[in-house]
Amino acid sequence: MPEGERRDEHDYTYRDVDNYKARELREKLNEQDFVFAPGLYHALDARLAEMTGHDAAYMSGYSTVLGQFGFSDLEIVDMTEMVENAKRIVEATDLPVVADCDTGYGGIHNVRRAVREYEKAGVAAVHIEDQVTPKRCGHIAGKQIVDRDTAKGRFSAAVDAKQDEDTIIIARTDAYGSANGDWEEHLERGRMYADAGVDIVWPEMPDPSREDAVEYAETIHETHPDLKLAFNYSSSFKWSEQEDALTFQELGDLGYKYIFITLFGLHAGAHKVYEDFKNLAENDEQAQWDLEEDYIGHPTESHHELSNTDRYQEIETEFDPAAKERIEESEGFGGEDGH
C-alpha cells in the first residue's frame, strides 16, 4: 500500500507494521556485494546462523516440510503452518529472516493474506513463485507455470498487499525447466515481474550452469540495469563436481545480490545426526562419550547457554522474591554446582 494512503475501512487483514528487519536487509542488499543466507527450518538453526556471523536467515520451504513434517516439497503444508514456523524462527534471532511463501497458497486474496501474515510474523522478505498450485520443488520433475496474466496478477497483488513499504518481495520464475516454459519465457517473466514492482527476481535454474547464470544476468540487465537478482545455490546440485563452479563473489558481481543454499542446515544436520545415531546404535554409551569429545569446549556445548537459560533465571529472580534463594541452594545450571 503506498505510503500515506488510507486503507479501505473494510480491509480487515491490514495492520500497521514496522518492518525494521526489512529495512536492515535492504541496507545490506544495497551496501554489500551480496547477502548470503543459509537455508534452515527451525529456531535453533537460526540462532546458530547468527552466532556464526551470517547476514540473514532463510526459512527454506523444502527444509521446513521435510524437517518439521517429513514430507516432500509438494505444497502439502499450508500457509498457517509455514507462517507459524517463520514466527518461531524470527523470535529466535536478530537476523533478518527471508521466508518461502510458495505460490501464495491460492488466488489473489490468498496471496495478499499470505504476505500480510508473514509481515505480522516479523519476516523481512518473502519469495513467491509462478508455478501452478499445488507447486513442487523447482528440482522435482513435473512443474508447470501459470499463464502470464495470472502470474502478473499474483505478483502485483503481493506488492500491493505490503503493510510496510520496506517489506521485500522476491519473485521466483520456474519457466526454464518447466513443462510449459523455456529460456526466453524465463527472461520475459523476470522483466515482467520487475515491472510489476517486485524488489528482487529469482530465476530458478534446472542445473548449476555457469553460462546460464551469466547470460540471464547480463541479458536482463540490458533492460533493467538496476534489478537485483537472487540465486539459489541449490542443494540439489553437486557443486563440488563442477570444473568451474560459480563462487558467491562472482554471482554478486553479476547482480545476484541475494544468495542462499536452500537445504544447507538440513543436510548438515541430517548427515551429522545420522552418523552419530548409527554410532549410538552400534556402540551404546561409547557414542555419547565420542560426542562429548566433539562438543566439549565448543560454542554449542551447553544447551542451557544456547537457550539463554541464565536470562530466564534473571527474570525469575526479578519477579519472584523466593527464586534467587531457591536457585542458589539447588543443583543444576545457575545453582550450586553450576553445570
How would you describe what is shown here?
The protein is of the alpha/beta class and 339 residues long. The chain is built from 14 helices and 8 strands. An 8-stranded parallel barrel has the order 1-2-3-4-5-6-7-8, surrounded by 9 helices. α8 links the parallel β6 and β7. α2 packs parallel to α4. The chain starts with 19 loop residues before the first helix and ends in an 11-residue tail after the last helix. The mean pLDDT is 95. GO terms for molecular function: isocitrate lyase activity. Keywords: Lyase. InterPro entries: ICL/PEPM (IPR039556), Pyrv/PenolPyrv_kinase-like_dom (IPR015813), Pyrv_kinase-like_dom_sf (IPR040442).
Key descriptive features of the protein:
46% helix, 8 strands, globular, alpha/beta
